[in-house]
Amino acid sequence: MEDNLIKFPDNRNYEYALNQSFQLAAERLAKIENLDVLCIKSNSLCQWLESGRVIVTEFLGRNYRIELPELIFSVIDSGEEVPLKERVLILHYLLEAMGTPLSNTLITFKEIPEGPVYFRTFTQRTIKHLVNNFSNQPQRLMESGKAFGARKAEYGDMAITIDAFKRVPITLVLWMGDDEFPPEGNILYDSTVTDYLPTEDIIILTETLIWRLVKAAAK
Q1: How many CB atoms lie within 10 A of CB 93?
Q2: What is 135-194 written as a DSSP string?
Q3: Whole-angstrom Cα distance, residue 209 to residue 216?
Q4: Which of 22, 49, 86, 196 has its C-alpha lying 20 to 30 A from 97's C-alpha?
């Protein structure tokens, strides 16, 4: 695994690590001569402009524009700033995408390479917040997910699938629980997910998605 992937530093070094990840990813992107192949593999759009090239890729239900060679990120039809963490995720998706067709076979995080190693961290940062915020009113999960293109999935008491990236669908599952069992949750991925993102980025992407849903539910 390459050294430019997101790690889990302590809070004091987190911003530094993100900046390093961004710079390394930017250097990799600058060396790619055939951006058309990159866009085909990630199911993104490449456009020529007089000033350079533009890549348009979908992330969490919205289209993001990347202007090259300046590497200027923007959300199409919005003036909002793209956070550094999300810029890194987008670059890693573009750079790591292998173009593998979806298998439509779902796996748990534990089945991902290095998944067992990171499982406790993954659970605390993702499943715990999914259950805490949505298990009492699971319908809110679907309602919040509509803004991100959610579609109903047939798992648990409530499940939705959201294409975090065009080729990275994520399925969130809830069980409401009863007098004997507490509510539970799980998160499923297409078995090709590591052809598009490394394990560390999968955690960060899933965490980002869940907090976007929580924020949408709060509105």
Answers
A1: 22
A2: SSSTHHHHHHHGGGT-EE-SSSSEEEEEEEETTEEEEEEEE---SSS--EEEEEEETTGG
A3: 11
A4: 49
Q: Helices 115-122 and 199-218 meet at what angle, rounded to 10?
A: 20
CB distance 73 to 82 below 8 Å: yes
pLDDT in tens, the chain (219 residues): 444 444 444 455 778 888 999 999 999 999 998 999 999 999 999 988 877 899 999 999 999 999 999 999 999 988 788 999 999 999 999 999 999 999 999 999 999 999 999 999 999 999 999 999 999 899 999 999 999 999 999 999 999 999 999 999 999 999 987 778 899 999 999 999 999 999 999 999 999 999 999 999 987
- Beta-bridge partners for 200: none
Cis check for the bond before 69: say yes or no (omega within 30 of 0).
Answer: yes
Domain ranges of the chain: 11-96, 106-218
Cα–Cα distance list, 108 to 112, 138, 156, 215 (Å): 7, 20, 14, 25
